[in-house]
Predict the 3D structure of the following.
Amino acid sequence: MSPSAINRSTASDENGPAAPGSLVSAHSIFGAVLAPALAAAAPGASWPTTLSGVTVTVRDAAGASHPAPLHRVSPSRVDYQVPATAAPGFALATIAHGSVKYATNLNILNTYLHLSQADGAAVTCAARAKSLCLLGSGLGDAKEVTASVGGTRVPVEVKAAGQGQQEYHVTLPNSQAGKGKKVEVVITAGGRASNAVNVTIK
């Protein structure tokens, strides 16, 4: 097999579509070297479109090419943001450094929310003891956002949480309080459900 890369959500580490503005990680497969040097990270809050000589260009379904902002690059992984101006549809994301290029497929939808599965991703909001905070990426242009905890629909508030990320403040239902068991939390945005995150409510 030829060296290449595969795209996964930076938040959930799952394959699947991405929304404009969402965070994506390209992972090396079959020995592809995605960056020419050791790992490097964007030096500030404004991410560059060239980092350690690496670029990612997204050619969208309309045929337009967009340089992608880069968060981190390494020989085995490149973290980037899908350009906010990329049109929905099947796209091609090309990772390049010097004369080396790897083209990867990317399916862009208006909204496709991924929630973080990392340890500590779900925490009690400091300001609201009965609220849960989840990090996600891929809200896109969705205006209607709902949440469910253990199958119970609950209020949710969305806040910006850094480039390409959102923080979802989910109100915990009284029916689940004090049970000390794991429940599934799902956010639905633009009519599409996110991946489920398992949370223990104490």
Notes: The chain has a mean pLDDT of 90. The chain has two domains: 4-108, 114-201. The first strand starts at residue 4 and ends at 9. The chain has no helices and 19 strands.
